[in-house]
Amino acid sequence: MRDSIARYGLLQALVVVELEVFLKEYPEYQGHFEAGVKYVIVTGHIRYAAITSLLADEDPQFDERRKTLREVRIDVQNHLIDDLDAIFHQENQKRLDLNVFEEALIFQRLQQRKGFSHAQIAQGLGVGKSTVTKRLKLLELDDAGRALVLDGRMQVATAYELVSALPGQPDLVVAAFQLIETERLSPGEAVNRIVLAETAEPVAEEPTVSGSVGDDATGEPDGVQDASEEGEAGPAFPPGVHVGDPAPQEKVQASQSQDPADAVPEPRVPQEVPEPAPAAPVDDVRARTRATALRERACAQLVAEYAPAVDDPQATLIAAGVITAAGGQILKQAHRWMRAAGDPDAEHLEPSAYAATVVARGNGALLRKLAYAVALAGGERQASDRRTGLSPAAIAHIRHLQDAGVYEPATEQERAALGSPAAASA
Fold first, then answer.
1. In the chain, how many H helices and how many E strands?
2. Which domains does the chain have, with CATH numbers?
3. What is the DSSP string of 318-375?
């Protein structure tokens, strides 16, 4: 940019708003400006920096150009103040390498200034709604948790799972991640271990894991935009407004603040978007998380104790079909329970290889035991899915655990679905 301006001069005016207008909309910036400042740059920061650099350069070859840059053209567009937040976000999104917490602070600012929903923020800024939801959730991490993410030790998806399963308990999130690191547990296993320890429940030797801990309403991987949201229109701007400078490296910050959250207020969204369903109360989330941990400990116990008495060829054939048809996550969960039950092959083989080996050997007792573990894993996946209510399959699964005497409904939803009176300790 500097070389271009040195050769051709400033070809495009800096877009600005008057300082008085800016401070009326953003009073929190009072005192951020030196005396004599009259304007706040909307777009053109890189060009302005290049001009400043040329003016400070004493190289004689720039003498003539410096004479033309003592004063530069500006385009005062005070009406942009209404859409300034959206413009800043568009510019920052293209030109700043923001980390997930800086993005989260941006979304939080948009939410708090005028009460926009996650869907409205997503529509106005052209991002996926799940991205907004997940980034905001990460703000529940404490400094230690954020440091783990920024250092690259804890993946964003893992952080989101842990925060969702342990709401309002950032110290437990860090403790759970330490278990993941030191004992190579999955996020679900770590959460279950932490939850059972915190509730003074005896911790079983068997590892427990939830296939659905931390799933959000979209079920999509972190950072992936919903297909239905691709191509959504970005924020609306006044007719004829040019947004952005041609320089791809330009970084735009409101009032030259170094805080990305301050640099990006909220967008003006052209139409109403329905509010998302309210989030479940923290106590309900904690109750569901504890119930998941207790159910999975019960499943591990049932698998360890299962011993088919009669060799039934038809049942063995059905068992082989159940195992072969099982998905990867269900096989992985069943494999963990079989490993905890002491099967030596499960200790040394990966889940898919272990399942194939059991089917190929044709041992009826082992086939039926693994099929039982697979059935329990499928039922537990249904029961721990937080995106929907309890399905008939989930109710049947919980009732089976109850009939086996290893679990009592631990949430109001479970008790209502099974007709249980009051909570009983597991």
1. 21, 3
2. 2-82 (no CATH), 97-229 (1.10.10.2830), 306-387 (no CATH)
3. HHHHHHHH--HHHHHHHHHHHHHTT-HHHHHS-HHHHHHHHHHHT-HHHHHHHHHHHH
pLDDT tens digits, one per residue of 86-141: 677 666 666 666 788 988 888 888 888 767 889 988 887 778 899 999 999 999 99
Q: What are phi and psi of 76, to 5 degrees?
A: -80, 115
- Beta bridge partners of residue 14, listed in sequence order: 74
Copy the structure tokens of residue 402: 């109850």
Model pLDDT for residues 8-38, shown as the tens digit of each residue = 888 889 999 999 999 988 888 888 899 999 9
Q: 65 CB contacts (<8 Å, ≥6 apart)?
A: 5, 6, 9, 54
Question: What's the token pair of residue 96?
Answer: 């700043």
Q: Enumerate the β-bridge partners of residue 18.
A: 39
Tokens matching residue 131: 């991205």
Show the tokens assigned to 325.
Answer: 């048809």
Q: What is the pLDDT of residue 82?
A: 73
- The Cβ of residue 167 has, within 10 Å, a number of other Cβ atoms equal to 20
Please state, in angstroms and rounded to a whole number, the distance separating the CA atoms of residues 71 and 390: 69
